[in-house]
Every structure is written in C-alpha cells, then in structure tokens.
Amino acid sequence: MPFKCLSLYFPIIALLFSSASFSEELVDIMLINGHVLTMDAKLTQYPQGFIAIKGNKIVAVGPQTQAKQFSAVETLDLDGDLVLPGFINTHTHVSMSLFRSLGDDVSDRLHGYIFPLEKEFVSREMVYLGAELGNLEMLKGGVTTYADMYYFEDEVAKAVDKIGLRAVLGQTVIKYPQADAKTPKEAIAYAEKFIKKYKSHARITPAFAPHGPYTNSTEDLQKIAELSLLYDVPVLTHLAESQKEQTTIAERSDGLSPIAYLESIGALNKNLVGAHVILANDNDITLLKKNRVGVAHNISANIKSAKGVAPVLDMLKQGVDVGLGTDGPMSGNTISLIDEFSQVAKIHKLWNKDRSVMPAVDIIKMATMGGAKVLNLEDKVGSLEIGKLADIIVFDTKSANMTPMYNPYSVLVYSAYATDVKHSIVDGKLLMKNREVLTANEQNVIKRAHEFSNKVKELLISQGKSIL
Ligand SMILES: [Zn+2]
C-alpha cells in the first residue's frame, strides 16, 4: 500500500490502538494521585483522589480507584500533593503593585501619600502594567479569583483576559477628580460602559466600586445601588473602616453608623461587598446578615494601618458571609492571600484571648467557599464538586515546611508559602505548571515594572519626597 494511502487510514488505526478503551470517558485534564480537599459542605477529602476536567468544568472528583473510568488529553500525576479549590481574594487594588513599599510607615497615608501619588502616576498604561504584575503574583500564590477596585478598570480586565484568572472588577466612583473621570457622574457613566462591555465575559464580572460611604455623596451611593440592581452586578466598597469615616457619616446622618446609614439610604443589599468592616457593632452585624451583605476581611492591612480588628467571629456566628482579602499591595503588602492565613488565625486568637478560636479549617473555608459566597459566585467556584468550574490549585507537599502533614488545613494556614503552589488551573485551563506561568512572559513584566519604578523614584526625588 503506498504511503499516501496509509496516511489516509492513520486516524482510524490510531483510534483502534489508542490507549483509551471505549468504556473510558475522554476528558481534557486529569489530576491523579492527589490529596483532594474538596471544601464542599461536608469538607469531603480524598487522601488518594483524582479530578477529571472537561472543557471548563469538573466532571468527576473522587477516590483514585474511580479514575480508571477516564482517559485524558493531559494527565498530571501529583504523587500525594495537595489539591484544593483556588483561593479567592475578595479585596485588592491590583495595579497598586507598582507603588509597593512606598510610604509604608507614613501616618494618614491615604490622604497624605496615596491620593497625591495616584494623581501623578495613574494612567491607562500604569493600570495595565500593575495589573499584569499583580495577576502574576496572585496566580503564583494560588489565587484563582479576585475582586478589584481601581481606575481604568477596563485595563485591569485586559490583563485578566490575557493571564487567565477570574475576577470581579469594580470601576471606582469617588468625589475627587481622577485620571479616568473628573466627576462622580463621569465615573458612573464610565462604570456603566465598562459593565455593558464585560457583562457576558466568561471570567470577568464587572462591578461598581464606590470608594467608601464618606468619599461619595448620598445621591451617588443611591444611584449606584439602583444601577447595580438594574444590571445585577456587585458593588465593591470600603465600609466601616476608619474613625474618620464614622465621624463623617454620623455628622451626615444624625448619628448613624456607616452600615446603618447605607441601609437608611437603600444601599445595603446582596450585591454589596464591604471591605474591612472593622467598626461594626451588634446591630450592624444584624443588618449585614439581614441584607445578605458580603464582608472582605483584610487582617494584614488592618493591623498594619493600626485601625483595628473586625469582629469576624461574631459575623461568622451570625451567618454573615466572610471572605479573606489582602487589600492593595501598598497596604498588605502581598496579594497572594496565603500570607493572610496565619495572621487571621493568630490575631483573632490574641484578640479574643483564646487559642481555640479561628481554627485553621475556618480560614481555608473563608479563603475558598466563603469568598465565593461573598462575591455571589458560590454556584460556580469555591469548592471541587461535579458541575462546578475548574478553578483548582495544587500545593507541592515535598518541601521541608510542608512536612509532615498530619492536618492539611493546619499546614496550609501555618506553614505553607506562596512558593509551594505548584500548578494552577482556571476555567479548565492550565495557567501555571511546575511554577512556570504559561500565559505571560513573567520576566518581561517584572522588567517593565522595574522601569516604571525608576520613573516614580526620579519624580519623587525631584519633588524632595523621601522614598525611605
Ligand atoms: Zn482597599
């Protein structure tokens, strides 16, 4: 038979001799021989387990013995490594990664340092580059979904689109003029345009991001609440964060707390995600629960800014949805979420003078399903269950700090580093394999970030400002 004829029959011959038997279901990716923490409602674990992914969904998860029902285009043999849902960072300002390590120990940093700095440097290019840098940091640390609040959020969306993470992106509305909008009215119009453009994106949920109750007018907050219900999109905001906010709102509202004030103006609902929520009394917590408001708990930023500790134990007791956040890279300062874990556990133990509170498993719950509930994404992500989107991370368990592993939740909270994250899959796509990012040129992004930082340094020095 001439070679040409043989080549015609090759696909049929290949199929006949393929390792896949006809009884096996062909999937795209299989993770085998892993220790699977599903983070489902029963906290099911498969110490020797597997996951099968087809398209962007999980089609099977269970004990390794069931893996033989499947064959895959790509199979990763995990040799006992830990598998869990990707982490969800419920509050950050990703593009501020380019300002990291500036003004860390300055008092009244927001008004005295950050706002003037942003006035000089925020541009489309800066937002995109900062988003690339921050997305890489989060991807390498196991974050698969994050919520962002910043300017030119369409530029953040381009970076998310390219690198492959999932994100809720909030376009900022604030009473001060900004690079992307001179007035709150312009900012709301910008947000509406952004929302219409990205509303049906597979991985991006566009949102409104009023900076805070005290940095926006009552009318603008009401308008945003109304529009968020109309478009059915989240509203991300800083809430009950500082004494200054509390005083301003009390003056505006005849003594109400920021949370009670938002309820009084009709701006407290299931679409709202409040970041920080440090100054919440019992009545506030009841209002959060009643109105199904999600809370982003940012412990490292809150203790570094000396603002206080949010009453998260009371919130969890009352059934409020709480996720973990890092805040921006000028606040936290890492945004990969893992660094929050141990701090959340230890600070709440100290604050409550009880080492039994805030156990490790609760931290991992907040970092996964808790965050998904906060962002109203619980039907899609947050746990490893059949039918859910395949957002999955794998931790290398062979490093010294991950050994031994009697309790995987404790290891993740108290001794894991971001660098222990080995593989990351988002929406069924392998974005990082053996710590190599497959969707971006990491070194090129870091080089451009260095170049940007040189410009920042030059300008600050020319203005006589200290960068130390
Ligand atoms: Zn923030």
Task: Describe the structure using short key phrases.
TIM Barrel, 468 residues, binds zinc ion, four-stranded parallel sheet, alpha/beta, nine-stranded mixed sheet, Urease, subunit C, domain 1
CATH homology superfamily name of the largest domain: Metal-dependent hydrolases
Give the overall form: globular
User: Which fold name fills CATH's third level, the topology of the largest domain?
Assistant: TIM Barrel
Major beta-sheet overview: 9 strands, mixed
Estimate the strand proportion: 15-25%
Summarize the structure.
The protein is of the alpha/beta class and 468 residues long. Helices cover 39% and strands 22% of the residues. The chain folds into 2 domains: 20-85 and 386-437, Urease, subunit C, domain 1 (Roll), CATH 2.30.40; 87-374, TIM Barrel (Alpha-Beta Barrel), CATH 3.20.20.140.
Structural overview:
The protein has helices at 3-17, 109-121, 124-140, 153-163, 184-198, 218-231, 243-252, 258-264, 282-290, 299-304, 312-318, 338-351, 360-374, 408-414, 442-462; strands at 25-37, 45-54, 57-63, 70-77, 82-85, 87-92, 143-150, 166-173, 204-210, 235-239, 272-276, 294-297, 322-324, 392-395, 421-426, 429-433, 436-437. It has 468 residues and is α/β, with parallel strands linked by helices. The model is unreliable at 1-6 and 13-20 (pLDDT under 50). Helix 3 (124-140) packs parallel to helix 4, helix 3 (124-140) crosses helix 15 and helix 12 crosses helix 13. The strands form three sheets. Strands 1, 2, 3, 4, 5, 14, 15, 16 and 17 form a nine-stranded mixed sheet that branches. The chain has a four-stranded parallel sheet with strand order 6-7-8-9. A four-stranded parallel sheet has the order 10-11-12-13. Strand 11, helix 9 (282-290) and strand 12 (294-297) form a beta-alpha-beta unit. It is globular, with a radius of gyration of 23 Å. It contains 15 helices and 17 strands. The chain has two domains: 20-85 and 386-437, Urease, subunit C, domain 1; 87-374, TIM Barrel (Alpha-Beta Barrel), CATH 3.20.20.
